[in-house]
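Module 6 notes. Inverse folding takes a fixed backbone as the condition and produces residue identities as the prediction. Think of it as a translation problem where the source language is geometry and the target language is the twenty amino acids. Below is one complete input and output pair. Work through it position by position during the lab.
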């Protein structure tokens, strides 16, 4: 079946991947390199003049389009991924909450003498790809996949993008949106096995904090702030607030006579506005906790809750 070419206003057709939201939210686990090869093969499949279930592309195209550096370390990771990708399975959820498990590739070859990749999708995967016109889509630049190094950081970015359609809707601010998962849903999303990160401390550090720190430090156009969801004292899930980085609100001081007279605080405030996102990205979960504490305070005078939380986090980090 011949597919129509994708025409997306405002984007460079050569660099944009149009991907179904349920693909971005699918459950799977693999290395970051395998994840890049997986999405890049879909990119090449969707942009081919005709869509067989076989795709082939050069090392040069892969490195250039994803803005990756060629080298011995990269090629070693590619060799490992060529084997891993054959065992890759994804769990897809449709709009009726039904789940389907499928193997992605029937065959995969990495020919170093010819510097080419060759992939053949399974019939089930090809069928999913051929039905894309019936599914909600998200857009992102293909080279963004090369900017994040860890599996979890890549997953958070792609999941966040899949919910971007809610930006400015359902009570969200104009340039903001959110998504929320229970701990068990996150474990399922990332295919984390029973016994792995069983304690909430390591889970929060490895699965939440470090990936979000990496993501927020990159220039990907969004920042994600995570807030634990608790039942009593127990963390049962996580709420992820997303905001377009270019539209991040200024964290300004409250307008009070006492504050206007305090030049030292005013100077601190001005400096903080410049690097607010950098500070938050160091520990977004702690920032969310401090912000809630500040918002819960009644009758406070002076800085806004956002700035108070930011200053406290900056002090804790020793910045």
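Target side of the pair, the amino acids:
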């Amino acid at each position: 079946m011949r597919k129509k070419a994708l025409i997306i206003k405002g984007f460079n057709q050569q660099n944009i991947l149009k991907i179904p939201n349920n693909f971005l939210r699918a459950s799977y686990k693999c290395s970051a390199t395998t994840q890049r090869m997986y999405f890049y093969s879909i990119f090449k499949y969707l942009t081919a003049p005709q869509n067989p279930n076989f795709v082939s592309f050069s090392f040069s195209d892969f490195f250039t389009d994803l803005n990756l550096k060629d080298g011995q370390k990269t090629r070693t990771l590619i060799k490992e991924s060529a084997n891993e990708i054959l065992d890759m399975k994804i769990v897809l959820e449709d709009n009726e909450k039904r789940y389907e498990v499928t193997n992605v590739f029937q065959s995969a070859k990495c020919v170093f003498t010819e510097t080419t990749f060759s992939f053949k999708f399974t019939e089930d995967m090809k069928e999913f790809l051929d039905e894309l016109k019936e599914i909600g889509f998200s857009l992102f630049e293909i080279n963004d996949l090369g900017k994040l190094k860890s599996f979890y950081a890549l997953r958070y970015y792609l999941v966040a993008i899949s919910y971007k359609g809610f930006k400015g809707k359902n009570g969200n601010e104009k340039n903001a949106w959110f998504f929320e998962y229970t701990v068990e849903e996150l474990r399922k999303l990332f295919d984390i096995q029973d016994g792995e990160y069983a304690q909430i401390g390591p889970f929060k550090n490895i699965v939440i904090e470090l990936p979000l720190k990496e993501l927020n430090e990159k220039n990907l156009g969004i920042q994600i702030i995570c807030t634990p969801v608790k039942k009593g004292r127990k963390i049962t899930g996580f709420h992820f607030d997303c905001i377009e980085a270019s539209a991040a609100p200024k964290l300004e001081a409250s307008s009070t006579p006492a504050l206007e007279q305090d030049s030292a605080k005013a100077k601190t405030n001005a400096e903080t506005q410049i690097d607010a996102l950098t500070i938050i990205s160091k520990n977004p979960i702690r920032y969310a906790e401090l912000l809630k504490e500040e918002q819960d305070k009644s009758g406070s005078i002076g800085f806004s809750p956002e700035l108070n939380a930011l200053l406290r986090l900056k002090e804790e980090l020793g910045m």
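Reference fact for the lab report: The beta strands are 16-20, 54-58, 89-93, 99-103, 105-111, 116-121, 137-141, 176-182, 222-231, 234-244.
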